[in-house]
Amino acid sequence: MISGVAGRYARSLFELAQETGAVSVVEGDLVRFEEMLEGSEDLKRLIKSPVFSADEQLKALGAVLDRARISGLVGNFLRLVARNRRLFAVPQMIRAFREIAAEARGETAAEVTSAHALSAEQERELKAALKSVVGKDVTVKVTVDPSLLAGLIVKVGSRQIDTSLKTKLNSLKLALKEVG
């Protein structure tokens, strides 16, 4: 279910990308921008802070996009988002775009958080297991969170499966508090 501001922007970008036959290029550029965002506290602050004016955000974002060589539809899209004071919603827009693109390819998207990086073989096995559950090909976005200790958290649509050791230990701690 994709709705709200992020959904409307993502849907518009997807339709433009589809019209020009550039869905995979746009998706690739968005993923690169998302990775830059995840790796830079300064960039996160730029898009989330209301302290910066639209002009300041636009100028700084333009420099980042030029340096990363992100132009075309994605460059124009992000500049438009900055002018409209909607940069704070870019992570949700990217997630929504990826969901829309996956749906158009007949796939479903899954967000996986793992205690450690998955090998290519583990990722293939996970995709196969998820495909057997949801009945579609699954694109997987894996993030690593060492605080989970072990296991995975898998989100597919509105469903979440949490097999992390952290959650199991927290449940055990809660159960022990109730007993004692």
Summarize the structure.
The chain has 180 residues and is α+β, with helices and mostly antiparallel strands.
Report on this structure.
With 180 residues, this protein is of the alpha+beta class. The protein has 2 domains: 4-101, Peroxidase, domain 1, CATH 1.10.520; 107-179. 62% of the residues lie in helices and 14% in strands. Strands 2-1-3-4 form a 4-stranded mixed sheet, sandwiched between helices. A hairpin with a 2-residue loop joins strand 3 (152-156) and strand 4 (159-162). It is globular and about 60 Å long. It starts with a helix and ends with a helix.
Question: Features of this protein?
Answer:
180 residues; alpha+beta; Peroxidase, domain 1; 2 domains; 4-stranded mixed β-sheet; 8 helices
List the helices and strands and how they pair.
Layout: H1 4-19, H2 23-38, H3 41-48, H4 54-68, H5 72-83, H6 90-104, E1 107-114, H7 120-134, E2 137-144, E3 152-156, E4 159-162, H8 165-179
Parallel strand pairs: 1-2
Antiparallel strand pairs: 1-3, 3-4
Helix pairs in contact: 1-5, 1-6, 2-6, 4-5
